[in-house]
Amino acid sequence: MSTVNWDARFSDIALNVKPSPIRALLKYTKTPGVISFAGGNPDPAVFPVAEFSEAAQILKREGRDVLQYGATQGYDPLKQYISKWMAARMGRETKLDEMLITTGSQEGMDLLCSVLLNDGDTIVVEGPTYPGALHAMRNRGARFLSVPCDKDGLCVDQLPGIIEEGRRNGHKIKFIYTIVNFQNPSGATLSTERRAKLLEIAEKYDLIVFEDDPYGHLRYSGEQKPTIFSMDKGGRVVYACSFSKILAPGTRGAWIVGAPEIIRKMVMIKQGTNLCTSVVAQALVYEYCRLGHLDGFLPKIVAHYAKKRDAMDKAFKKYLPSNTIYHTPDGGFFFWLQVPGVDSTKLFMKAIEKGVAFVTGPSFYPEAGKGADYMRTCFTFCQPEEIDEGAKRLAAAIKEL
After folding, report:
1. Mean pLDDT of the chain
2. What distance in Å separates the CA atoms of residue 283 and residue 71, rounded to the nearest whole number?
Protein backbone atom coordinates (compact mmCIF):
# COMPACT_ATOMS: atom_id res chain seq x y z
CA MET A 1 0.00 0.00 0.00
CA SER A 2 1.46 3.38 -1.03
CA THR A 3 1.52 6.31 1.37
CA VAL A 4 0.23 9.75 0.49
CA ASN A 5 2.81 12.39 -0.43
CA TRP A 6 1.17 15.29 1.33
CA ASP A 7 3.87 17.80 0.40
CA ALA A 8 2.94 17.31 -3.26
CA ARG A 9 -0.66 18.21 -2.44
CA PHE A 10 -0.28 21.15 -0.07
CA SER A 11 -0.97 24.67 -1.27
CA ASP A 12 1.85 27.22 -1.48
CA ILE A 13 0.51 28.83 1.71
CA ALA A 14 0.55 25.52 3.59
CA LEU A 15 4.06 24.71 2.40
CA ASN A 16 5.41 28.08 3.50
CA VAL A 17 3.47 28.63 6.71
CA LYS A 18 5.49 28.70 9.93
CA PRO A 19 4.28 28.19 13.50
CA SER A 20 3.74 31.17 15.76
CA PRO A 21 7.15 32.05 17.26
CA ILE A 22 5.52 32.86 20.60
CA ARG A 23 3.57 29.59 20.78
CA ALA A 24 6.74 27.70 19.87
CA LEU A 25 8.42 29.19 22.94
CA LEU A 26 5.49 28.58 25.28
CA LYS A 27 6.29 24.87 25.59
CA TYR A 28 9.28 25.85 27.70
CA THR A 29 7.07 27.80 30.10
CA LYS A 30 5.30 24.57 31.11
CA THR A 31 8.41 23.41 32.94
CA PRO A 32 7.59 23.20 36.67
CA GLY A 33 8.85 26.22 38.58
CA VAL A 34 9.30 28.50 35.55
CA ILE A 35 7.99 32.03 36.04
CA SER A 36 6.53 33.08 32.72
CA PHE A 37 6.74 36.63 31.42
CA ALA A 38 6.16 35.17 27.94
CA GLY A 39 2.49 34.77 26.98
CA GLY A 40 0.37 37.91 26.87
CA ASN A 41 -2.28 36.47 29.17
CA PRO A 42 -4.71 38.28 31.46
CA ASP A 43 -4.74 37.27 35.11
CA PRO A 44 -7.41 34.56 35.60
CA ALA A 45 -7.63 35.53 39.27
CA VAL A 46 -9.67 38.58 38.27
CA PHE A 47 -11.93 36.94 35.71
CA PRO A 48 -15.54 37.93 36.57
CA VAL A 49 -16.81 34.39 37.02
CA ALA A 50 -19.75 35.20 39.29
CA GLU A 51 -20.96 38.07 37.13
CA PHE A 52 -20.63 36.01 33.97
CA SER A 53 -22.62 33.25 35.63
CA GLU A 54 -25.33 35.80 36.35
CA ALA A 55 -25.28 36.87 32.70
CA ALA A 56 -25.91 33.25 31.69
CA GLN A 57 -29.52 33.80 32.80
CA ILE A 58 -30.09 35.17 29.29
CA LEU A 59 -30.18 31.55 28.14
CA LYS A 60 -33.33 30.98 30.19
CA ARG A 61 -34.90 34.13 28.78
CA GLU A 62 -33.79 33.95 25.15
CA GLY A 63 -32.27 30.51 24.77
CA ARG A 64 -34.37 29.47 21.78
CA ASP A 65 -33.01 32.44 19.85
CA VAL A 66 -29.38 32.54 20.96
CA LEU A 67 -28.91 28.80 20.53
CA GLN A 68 -29.90 29.15 16.87
CA TYR A 69 -27.73 30.24 13.94
CA GLY A 70 -27.20 33.99 14.00
CA ALA A 71 -26.55 36.81 11.58
CA THR A 72 -23.03 36.83 10.15
CA GLN A 73 -22.75 40.53 10.97
CA GLY A 74 -23.19 39.81 14.67
CA TYR A 75 -25.76 39.88 17.46
CA ASP A 76 -27.55 43.22 17.12
CA PRO A 77 -28.03 43.92 20.86
CA LEU A 78 -24.27 43.54 21.40
CA LYS A 79 -23.48 45.73 18.40
CA GLN A 80 -25.86 48.42 19.66
CA TYR A 81 -24.25 48.30 23.08
CA ILE A 82 -20.72 48.59 21.63
CA SER A 83 -21.79 51.50 19.41
CA LYS A 84 -23.06 53.52 22.37
CA TRP A 85 -20.30 52.43 24.77
CA MET A 86 -17.53 53.32 22.31
CA ALA A 87 -19.09 56.55 21.01
CA ALA A 88 -16.84 58.86 23.03
CA ARG A 89 -13.72 57.11 21.74
CA MET A 90 -14.94 56.80 18.16
CA GLY A 91 -16.19 60.37 17.91
CA ARG A 92 -19.77 59.21 17.26
CA GLU A 93 -22.05 56.23 17.50
CA THR A 94 -21.08 53.89 14.68
CA LYS A 95 -23.89 52.44 12.60
CA LEU A 96 -24.68 48.74 12.65
CA ASP A 97 -23.65 48.33 9.00
CA GLU A 98 -20.22 49.73 9.93
CA MET A 99 -19.51 46.98 12.49
CA LEU A 100 -18.79 43.26 12.31
CA ILE A 101 -18.49 40.99 15.36
CA THR A 102 -15.59 38.57 14.91
CA THR A 103 -14.30 35.48 16.69
CA GLY A 104 -11.40 37.25 18.32
CA SER A 105 -9.46 40.10 16.75
CA GLN A 106 -7.34 37.58 14.86
CA GLU A 107 -10.32 36.74 12.64
CA GLY A 108 -10.83 40.43 11.96
CA MET A 109 -7.25 40.71 10.71
CA ASP A 110 -7.69 37.67 8.50
CA LEU A 111 -10.96 38.97 7.03
CA LEU A 112 -9.51 42.40 6.34
CA CYS A 113 -6.54 40.86 4.57
CA SER A 114 -8.90 38.62 2.61
CA VAL A 115 -10.80 41.57 1.18
CA LEU A 116 -7.83 43.90 0.58
CA LEU A 117 -4.86 41.75 -0.41
CA ASN A 118 -3.83 39.93 -3.52
CA ASP A 119 -0.85 37.60 -3.33
CA GLY A 120 2.33 39.68 -3.10
CA ASP A 121 0.68 42.92 -1.98
CA THR A 122 2.42 44.89 0.76
CA ILE A 123 1.44 46.06 4.23
CA VAL A 124 3.31 48.79 6.11
CA VAL A 125 3.81 47.65 9.70
CA GLU A 126 5.56 48.86 12.81
CA GLY A 127 8.95 47.43 13.62
CA PRO A 128 8.47 45.72 16.06
CA THR A 129 4.88 44.54 15.80
CA TYR A 130 2.50 41.79 16.91
CA PRO A 131 3.57 38.38 15.48
CA GLY A 132 -0.03 37.15 15.30
CA ALA A 133 -0.80 39.92 12.85
CA LEU A 134 2.23 39.06 10.73
CA HIS A 135 1.11 35.43 10.76
CA ALA A 136 -2.42 36.27 9.55
CA MET A 137 -1.06 38.62 6.91
CA ARG A 138 1.51 36.15 5.58
CA ASN A 139 -1.27 33.57 5.26
CA ARG A 140 -2.89 35.94 2.75
CA GLY A 141 0.30 36.37 0.73
CA ALA A 142 1.45 39.69 2.19
CA ARG A 143 4.85 41.29 1.94
CA PHE A 144 5.99 43.88 4.45
CA LEU A 145 7.66 47.23 4.83
CA SER A 146 8.45 48.12 8.43
CA VAL A 147 8.75 51.54 10.04
CA PRO A 148 10.76 51.99 13.26
CA CYS A 149 9.07 52.86 16.57
CA ASP A 150 10.20 54.84 19.59
CA LYS A 151 8.56 55.64 22.92
CA ASP A 152 5.90 57.70 21.11
CA GLY A 153 4.99 54.90 18.71
CA LEU A 154 5.38 54.70 14.96
CA CYS A 155 8.01 57.13 13.62
CA VAL A 156 5.63 58.69 11.13
CA ASP A 157 8.20 61.17 9.79
CA GLN A 158 9.99 58.20 8.21
CA LEU A 159 6.80 56.88 6.66
CA PRO A 160 6.71 58.91 3.38
CA GLY A 161 10.26 57.93 2.47
CA ILE A 162 9.59 54.26 3.16
CA ILE A 163 6.36 54.34 1.13
CA GLU A 164 8.01 56.07 -1.82
CA GLU A 165 11.06 53.82 -1.82
CA GLY A 166 8.81 50.78 -1.52
CA ARG A 167 6.73 51.84 -4.50
CA ARG A 168 9.88 52.44 -6.55
CA ASN A 169 10.91 48.88 -5.71
CA GLY A 170 7.63 47.43 -6.93
CA HIS A 171 5.66 47.18 -3.68
CA LYS A 172 1.90 47.53 -4.10
CA ILE A 173 1.04 48.91 -0.68
CA LYS A 174 -2.53 48.31 0.50
CA PHE A 175 -2.65 49.53 4.08
CA ILE A 176 -0.78 50.66 7.18
CA TYR A 177 -1.13 48.50 10.30
CA THR A 178 -0.65 50.21 13.66
CA ILE A 179 -1.30 49.20 17.29
CA VAL A 180 -2.00 52.65 18.65
CA ASN A 181 -2.14 52.20 22.43
CA PHE A 182 0.44 50.37 24.60
CA GLN A 183 1.72 48.58 21.54
CA ASN A 184 2.52 44.89 21.51
CA PRO A 185 5.44 44.44 22.10
CA SER A 186 6.93 47.89 22.70
CA GLY A 187 4.34 49.27 25.12
CA ALA A 188 4.49 52.58 23.22
CA THR A 189 1.46 54.80 22.64
CA LEU A 190 1.21 56.75 19.41
CA SER A 191 1.12 60.46 20.26
CA THR A 192 -1.86 62.58 19.24
CA GLU A 193 0.33 64.58 16.86
CA ARG A 194 1.60 61.43 15.17
CA ARG A 195 -1.94 60.06 14.83
CA ALA A 196 -2.98 63.15 12.95
CA LYS A 197 0.18 63.04 10.83
CA LEU A 198 -0.33 59.34 10.06
CA LEU A 199 -3.84 60.02 8.79
CA GLU A 200 -2.55 62.93 6.71
CA ILE A 201 0.11 60.69 5.12
CA ALA A 202 -2.44 57.94 4.47
CA GLU A 203 -4.64 60.47 2.67
CA LYS A 204 -1.71 61.78 0.63
CA TYR A 205 -0.73 58.29 -0.55
CA ASP A 206 -4.32 56.98 -0.70
CA LEU A 207 -3.77 54.17 1.80
CA ILE A 208 -6.05 52.49 4.34
CA VAL A 209 -5.12 52.67 8.04
CA PHE A 210 -5.83 49.57 10.16
CA GLU A 211 -6.03 50.87 13.74
CA ASP A 212 -5.70 47.92 16.13
CA ASP A 213 -6.64 48.82 19.71
CA PRO A 214 -6.94 45.77 21.99
CA TYR A 215 -5.30 47.48 24.99
CA GLY A 216 -6.74 51.00 24.79
CA HIS A 217 -9.04 50.64 27.80
CA LEU A 218 -6.16 49.54 30.04
CA ARG A 219 -4.53 52.91 30.79
CA TYR A 220 -2.74 53.21 34.14
CA SER A 221 -1.17 56.65 33.75
CA GLY A 222 -1.19 59.58 31.33
CA GLU A 223 -4.02 61.00 29.27
CA GLN A 224 -6.33 59.24 26.83
CA LYS A 225 -5.52 59.81 23.13
CA PRO A 226 -8.18 60.22 20.42
CA THR A 227 -8.62 57.30 18.05
CA ILE A 228 -7.44 57.83 14.50
CA PHE A 229 -10.94 56.70 13.49
CA SER A 230 -12.40 59.74 15.27
CA MET A 231 -10.10 62.03 13.24
CA ASP A 232 -10.99 60.44 9.92
CA LYS A 233 -13.56 62.11 7.64
CA GLY A 234 -12.94 60.04 4.54
CA GLY A 235 -13.70 56.49 5.70
CA ARG A 236 -10.15 55.21 5.23
CA VAL A 237 -9.61 54.02 8.84
CA VAL A 238 -10.61 50.51 9.91
CA TYR A 239 -10.70 50.12 13.69
CA ALA A 240 -10.52 46.88 15.71
CA CYS A 241 -11.01 46.16 19.41
CA SER A 242 -11.61 43.10 21.57
CA PHE A 243 -13.12 41.85 24.82
CA SER A 244 -10.16 39.49 25.31
CA LYS A 245 -8.07 41.87 27.41
CA ILE A 246 -10.89 43.78 29.16
CA LEU A 247 -13.23 40.88 29.98
CA ALA A 248 -11.81 37.41 29.23
CA PRO A 249 -10.14 35.87 26.17
CA GLY A 250 -12.36 32.81 26.35
CA THR A 251 -15.30 34.88 25.13
CA ARG A 252 -13.55 35.15 21.74
CA GLY A 253 -15.50 38.36 21.26
CA ALA A 254 -14.11 41.19 19.15
CA TRP A 255 -15.35 43.77 16.71
CA ILE A 256 -14.11 45.63 13.67
CA VAL A 257 -15.48 48.95 12.42
CA GLY A 258 -15.11 50.49 8.97
CA ALA A 259 -16.90 51.82 5.94
CA PRO A 260 -20.06 49.83 5.09
CA GLU A 261 -18.50 48.79 1.77
CA ILE A 262 -15.59 46.98 3.39
CA ILE A 263 -17.72 45.50 6.17
CA ARG A 264 -20.10 44.01 3.58
CA LYS A 265 -17.20 42.28 1.83
CA MET A 266 -15.83 40.96 5.11
CA VAL A 267 -19.26 39.59 5.98
CA MET A 268 -19.35 37.70 2.68
CA ILE A 269 -15.94 36.15 3.35
CA LYS A 270 -16.97 35.22 6.90
CA GLN A 271 -20.06 33.48 5.51
CA GLY A 272 -17.70 31.08 3.77
CA THR A 273 -15.61 30.34 6.86
CA ASN A 274 -17.65 30.08 10.08
CA LEU A 275 -21.09 31.50 9.15
CA CYS A 276 -21.22 33.56 12.34
CA THR A 277 -19.45 34.11 15.64
CA SER A 278 -20.98 32.07 18.47
CA VAL A 279 -24.34 33.65 19.24
CA VAL A 280 -24.24 32.17 22.75
CA ALA A 281 -20.91 33.89 23.46
CA GLN A 282 -22.16 37.19 22.03
CA ALA A 283 -25.38 37.02 24.06
CA LEU A 284 -23.49 36.27 27.28
CA VAL A 285 -21.15 39.21 26.73
CA TYR A 286 -24.07 41.47 25.89
CA GLU A 287 -25.99 40.50 29.01
CA TYR A 288 -22.88 40.95 31.16
CA CYS A 289 -22.47 44.44 29.72
CA ARG A 290 -26.19 45.29 29.91
CA LEU A 291 -26.19 44.50 33.63
CA GLY A 292 -23.45 47.12 34.09
CA HIS A 293 -20.71 44.69 35.00
CA LEU A 294 -18.15 45.80 32.38
CA ASP A 295 -18.16 49.41 33.54
CA GLY A 296 -17.72 48.19 37.11
CA PHE A 297 -15.02 45.69 36.18
CA LEU A 298 -12.72 47.93 34.17
CA PRO A 299 -11.59 50.19 37.06
CA LYS A 300 -10.81 47.06 39.09
CA ILE A 301 -8.57 45.47 36.49
CA VAL A 302 -6.91 48.80 35.69
CA ALA A 303 -5.97 49.15 39.37
CA HIS A 304 -4.96 45.47 39.54
CA TYR A 305 -2.68 45.61 36.50
CA ALA A 306 -1.26 49.03 37.40
CA LYS A 307 0.18 47.50 40.58
CA LYS A 308 1.77 44.73 38.54
CA ARG A 309 3.22 47.19 36.04
CA ASP A 310 4.74 49.13 38.91
CA ALA A 311 6.07 45.91 40.44
CA MET A 312 7.83 44.97 37.21
CA ASP A 313 9.26 48.45 36.78
CA LYS A 314 10.58 48.40 40.36
CA ALA A 315 12.05 44.90 39.97
CA PHE A 316 13.78 45.73 36.69
CA LYS A 317 15.33 48.85 38.20
CA LYS A 318 16.45 46.79 41.19
CA TYR A 319 17.96 43.78 39.42
CA LEU A 320 18.69 44.31 35.73
CA PRO A 321 22.03 45.60 34.42
CA SER A 322 22.40 49.38 34.39
CA ASN A 323 22.71 49.44 30.60
CA THR A 324 19.23 47.91 30.15
CA ILE A 325 17.07 50.23 28.06
CA TYR A 326 13.29 50.43 28.38
CA HIS A 327 10.46 52.87 29.02
CA THR A 328 7.64 52.27 31.48
CA PRO A 329 4.38 51.81 29.53
CA ASP A 330 1.32 53.89 30.43
CA GLY A 331 -0.91 50.86 30.04
CA GLY A 332 -1.38 47.51 28.38
CA PHE A 333 0.50 44.30 29.15
CA PHE A 334 4.14 44.63 28.14
CA PHE A 335 7.65 45.92 28.74
CA TRP A 336 10.09 45.98 25.81
CA LEU A 337 13.68 45.59 27.01
CA GLN A 338 16.94 46.11 25.19
CA VAL A 339 20.15 44.77 26.70
CA PRO A 340 22.81 45.97 24.25
CA GLY A 341 25.10 43.22 23.04
CA VAL A 342 23.03 40.38 24.54
CA ASP A 343 21.47 37.95 22.07
CA SER A 344 17.96 37.35 23.41
CA THR A 345 17.66 33.98 21.65
CA LYS A 346 20.73 32.67 23.48
CA LEU A 347 19.58 34.39 26.65
CA PHE A 348 16.21 32.63 26.48
CA MET A 349 17.66 29.15 27.02
CA LYS A 350 19.85 30.41 29.87
CA ALA A 351 16.81 32.10 31.41
CA ILE A 352 14.80 28.87 31.21
CA GLU A 353 17.61 27.17 33.14
CA LYS A 354 17.21 29.86 35.77
CA GLY A 355 13.43 29.42 35.81
CA VAL A 356 12.08 32.45 33.95
CA ALA A 357 10.72 32.94 30.43
CA PHE A 358 10.17 35.86 28.05
CA VAL A 359 9.71 36.29 24.29
CA THR A 360 12.76 36.94 22.12
CA GLY A 361 13.01 40.16 20.12
CA PRO A 362 13.35 38.73 16.58
CA SER A 363 9.84 37.22 16.93
CA PHE A 364 8.36 40.71 16.46
CA TYR A 365 9.92 41.72 13.14
CA PRO A 366 8.93 40.71 9.61
CA GLU A 367 12.56 40.83 8.52
CA ALA A 368 15.28 38.47 9.64
CA GLY A 369 18.17 39.87 11.62
CA LYS A 370 16.32 42.52 13.63
CA GLY A 371 15.65 42.75 17.35
CA ALA A 372 18.44 40.40 18.46
CA ASP A 373 19.10 42.24 21.72
CA TYR A 374 15.44 42.93 22.59
CA MET A 375 12.93 40.94 24.62
CA ARG A 376 9.27 41.31 25.58
CA THR A 377 8.02 40.68 29.11
CA CYS A 378 4.37 40.51 30.20
CA PHE A 379 3.44 41.70 33.70
CA THR A 380 -0.29 40.92 33.86
CA PHE A 381 -0.22 37.16 34.45
CA CYS A 382 2.24 36.83 37.33
CA GLN A 383 1.71 38.04 40.88
CA PRO A 384 3.95 40.85 42.23
CA GLU A 385 6.13 38.50 44.27
CA GLU A 386 6.64 36.30 41.19
CA ILE A 387 7.54 39.37 39.16
CA ASP A 388 10.25 40.29 41.65
CA GLU A 389 11.68 36.76 41.67
CA GLY A 390 11.44 36.49 37.89
CA ALA A 391 13.38 39.73 37.42
CA LYS A 392 16.07 38.44 39.79
CA ARG A 393 16.36 35.20 37.77
CA LEU A 394 16.48 37.13 34.49
CA ALA A 395 19.30 39.30 35.81
CA ALA A 396 21.22 36.17 36.86
CA ALA A 397 20.79 34.69 33.38
CA ILE A 398 22.08 37.89 31.75
CA LYS A 399 25.08 37.93 34.07
CA GLU A 400 26.03 34.34 33.19
CA LEU A 401 25.59 34.65 29.42
Report:
1. 95
2. 13
